[in-house]
Amino acid sequence: MVSRLWRSFSDTLYVASKGRLATLLLVLVTLINIFIFPWHKEIVFKLTGGATPIDWKVFYTPHQFQSYIHALGTEGRQHIVLFALTLDLLYAFLSALLIGLFLAALLREVFEETSPGMYLQLVPFMAFFFDVVENIGIVWISLSYPLSQTMLETTTSLVRIASTGKWLFVALSFASLLFCFLSTILFKLFVTPTKKKS
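Above: the chain sequence. Below: its structure as tokens.
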């Protein structure tokens, strides 16, 4: 059952990677980076007196996170909640799907369809999963603020774990893309000519 679901998922990604969906996703992701994120950054910067969105940082301390939430104020926390539940999640999903499509196309040039290496397609979706968990934590803290110090510290720790997981899988996603891209080039340069000669 699980094997069939995985095969169906993998085949669906591969078929989609051959169409116009990847181009559309690339355009949407680019537009969000150019227009939406600078707008979001400016709002956070003004409301906090100079801070950048905390979830953009790879590492931050519990004190930095708590200071950030406090500095946002009521208006800022409302903005964070709305942004985290809409545009930020949309961007995370679109990015995961885009990288997943690229990997689906490239991995079949490197591995057999039944190879465990094909599971690299899941890496960007793991980044999306941890992004969702991180956003849920930020939203919960923002809606429940002020919290007791114990609860705030506990929740902050969970958010930081999710944030670390997100950035880890983001890095692995790009590393997987680079590996597949270079492997495909080497395969075409050295393996394919050898096969033709034989």
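Residues 2-187 form one domain.
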